[in-house]
Amino acid sequence: MDLLAHLEAYVATAEEAGFSRAADRLGIAQPLLSRRVKTLEEHFGGALFDRSRRQIETTELGVLLLPYARDVLDRAQRLRQVARSARRSRVRPVGVPAHCDPAALARALRTGGEHGITLGMRELPPPERVSGLADGSLSYALVRTAPEQAALRVPLGLASAPVPDGTAPRRTLHLEELRPRRGRDARHAAVPPLLLLAEDQVPCFEDRLARAAARAGLPEERIRPAGAAATALAETLAGHALLLCAEPFARQHGAHWTPFADPALHRGYDVRAAPGRDGTAAVPHWLAALLAAALGAVPRRDGGPEPGTGRADAPARLAARG
After folding, report:
1. What global pTM score does this model have?
2. Does 111 have pLDDT greater than 90?
3. Strand runs (DSSP E) across the chain, as ranges?
């Protein structure tokens, strides 16, 4: 038995006080409506209408059950409306790195709503962002790639313990400067390890860093993967380690930060979309611009267009600025 259809027949008959008018209201034949009411009476074990008179009347049982039947139909209607709304505004998950700017991500969520798209931000490590696009669990993602080929570039450097007077000059860092010292004091000099956050524990970066470190004469064991970010920060702020990270992350926690001089050691990102049914994958310009802002990405030096920075894309530029 289709309970909802039978309840609709019952409620319409009670409100219209007649089978013919109820059938017209529902757009069905009267015999079908009568059968549905009869089946419902058998289901409840009692008559819902008194048919002995010229105009039918609702029985005591029918009056008692009527508000509950209306409630069931109202809830079913609301359920259908929610389902339709959910289909229209399906949440589109976006895979982002840890430590993105929350304010920029909030602007992306609001702008998505203005475009009729419900976004959901998911903080994931690099491999899971790639696999999420492949298996369809993500609609969009920031994917690590070589900085010279990437649409977005984030300067990477070393965070260290805060400078006491806070007046350290701005400069760039060459890996050669981290080589162990030679001489009588070298034996007693502490050599802090270089810690890699999970965001940089990807082959495209680790291999490049290892080659650069070898050229600079740094021992291989000097570079270590970090565990939890909080633990790595604690060791860094205590002066026991150096942490590879982006400037906003270091500044947020009060660490001193020095950028790498070699741009090949910076982070590179592309904003990618999961392939659609036709095999194409398009990222809205406004979303690319706002994700770039969330990363703290800098403009490309080759003069190529950045997401959301073309002259014809003024709305995206304004969105990135909030």
Report:
1. 0.64
2. yes
3. 49-50, 57-58, 91-96, 118-123, 140-145, 152-154, 156-160, 194-196, 223-225, 242-246, 256-259, 267-273
